Amino acid sequence: VTLARAQGGLEALSIDRESAKGALYLQGATVTAWQPKDQAPVLWVSAKSLYQVDKAIRGGIPICFPWFGPKADQPSAPQHGFARSRPWMLQSVADDPKDRSVTVTLVLAADRETRALWPHDFRARYAVRMGQKLEIALTVENTGESPFRFEEALHTYLAVADVRGARVEGLEDTRYFDKVDNGKEKRMGPREAITVGGETDRVYVGTSSATELIDPGMNRRISIQKDGSRTTVVWNPWIDKARAMKDFGDDEWKEMICVETANSGPDAIDLEPGGSHTIRALYAVNALA
Ligand code: BG6
Fold first, then answer.
1. Which residues of the chain carry a pLDDT beneath 50?
2. Is 169 one of the catalytic residues?
3. Which of 17, 88, 249, 278 is disulfide-compatible with 139, CB 3.0–4.6 A?
4. What are phi and psi of 281, to 5 degrees?
5. Cβ(226)–Cβ(282) under 8 Å?
6. Which residues in 48-64 are b (16+ Cβ under 10 Å) and which e?
7. Active-site residue 260, yes or no?
8. Which atom of ligand 1 is nearest to the CA of 62?
9. Among candidate residues 242, 226, 233, 243, the one with its CA nearest the CA of residue 279
10. What is the pLDDT of residues 59-77, one digit of tens each?
11. Ligand 1 lining (C-beta closer than 6 Å)
């Protein structure tokens, strides 16, 4: 594991183990690569991503916190919170000889700049365990004197051969808000999988179910187990939105889909002083039958 200046001069850890290769930027604690042994890369990063101080990386796993989407009472605040663009502090790197994984731990605590955007004292700890599987866990602690409420998302960009041939299973019969239809509340059919044939931006709520991304084009399934999460977000910008984003290639929408392990809207988390909460996602890759 080495720490060096990477794209844009930003500091990143590069991980090279028997079980997997990967990369993690300290800015935003953003995992930008994970490739288990004998597999193709699992995470997607835009070739047009900016690597700039204070800018979220377009791809990998940005962390949305302490709000998801626009900030409800302050539309001028950065979308998806500040965690994805703040510098995190590297706390430790530990090998586990048993499964040959490596765990990187990073920390972000409230400071003058975060308090200007969100007036609460918190400490966030992010543990990334990389190996044949990838496990990420974000623990938020209320270190202040009054309760607070927050939203969060592990905003994972997954690589697919062609999103039009892929599907997401595991959210059958689940309630969701359709952000491409004015946030209208809808419900998945009892056997319905999510397929992408246009801009897709859905916030599934009240669900702790595991999901699976089935990708026949790459002959693989990516399974996502989670705990401490009641929201799953599925996003693909499709053609027009991809064109409109300057840090996203015009045709790149075909190669990615976000399946985000989250707590948002009605699933926001309330923390009393001294309280803490952990959201966890576990990714595994297997060949299709
Ligand atoms: C998704 C949201 O999680 O993130 C979308 O549901 C949003 O509405 C997308 O467009 C990307 O957000 P951003 O801020 O990284 O461009």
1. none
2. no
3. 278
4. -135, 140
5. yes
6. ebebeeebbbbbbbbbb
7. yes
8. 15
9. 226
10. 999 999 999 999 999 999 9
11. 56, 69, 79-80, 155, 179, 201, 233, 235, 258, 260
